[in-house]
Write the structure tokens for this entry.
Amino acid sequence: MNNSGLDIDNTRIEELLKSAIVTATEALKFYTELLEVVSSEGQRQKLRKITQLKTKHRATLEGLYVMVTLEKPEGLPPKGAVSFGEIDSTGEIETRLAAVIGVEEKIRHYYQELSKRTDDRELKHLLMMLAEEERSLVGLLWELTATGPPRGVVKPRFL
């Protein structure tokens, strides 16, 4: 067992990271499918940006997993993982966007909570960076909705 400075056991962190990788993969699939049904070019451009960000995000998670475990991720996520598979992919686009915003918010909180459970400064910084990526992504998703973001939601920095 490696000593990464975690105050939770390495088995648990491995499960959490596996779950995050699977969730990021499901998110990519969801956004790619949504891209196929959205007709507005402005929305399509934002969805393309989201898929690029999620691809980078997944690669970061996989790198973090390798850093913590010194092996490639494989296997199923733990029970109770946040899942894009539960979102109705046949509903109205606004309904899908509302659901995915909720999922992305859960993921953001997941990274924040995970960062609180580690004593490793580098790992904490990386997890907070992942939470910030999710926060920015939520802002971009809100821009895709007809109503726009509610007051207090920060516009993504990358736009």
